[in-house]
Amino acid sequence: MSAAATTRDDLTGYAEYPGWSHTLHRSRPGGHLVLPGAYLKWYDIRGAEQDATPAVSDRARVFLRAEEAAGRLAFRKEFGYVLLHRCGDNHFMQVCVWRDRNELVQAIYADTGDGFRPYEQEPGLQLAAQDVVELDVTGHERRAWSLYLRSARDTAAKRAYLDDFDTERPVG
Fold it and tell me: pTM of the full predicted structure?
């Protein structure tokens, strides 16, 4: 081990996040969004003490319809889900689809008060994916998709996947 290497016992400075405290959120199924190229399950996520924002959900659905119509979201007759996550006064939206059988791809948008726009990532190879709260719902969706892949993938199996929402519950 080099002199600059840190020992396993010296974890000072790692993942400490001073002044921040982790709070519970709630995930709530919000029905479906059916687009010409995608059939999406909808989830609203917010702090456990935050009120629902149905007007923002409605605006987000209109936005996604316009994104697909303009060709900025290119769906291929896919299934997936949307996570609309309220963070304070801001909203982040992940549009996730199952592509090529077993790959999850996503587009990320943010609304910081002036409408939804593509989320501006920091440059580099390490890109934002989902936070711990969003991953709770994604864990459910991964299991539901795996069940679908192991099924006959017929109409009944498709309906079973689309009806298999994560229940409203605390997440994160």
Answer: 0.90
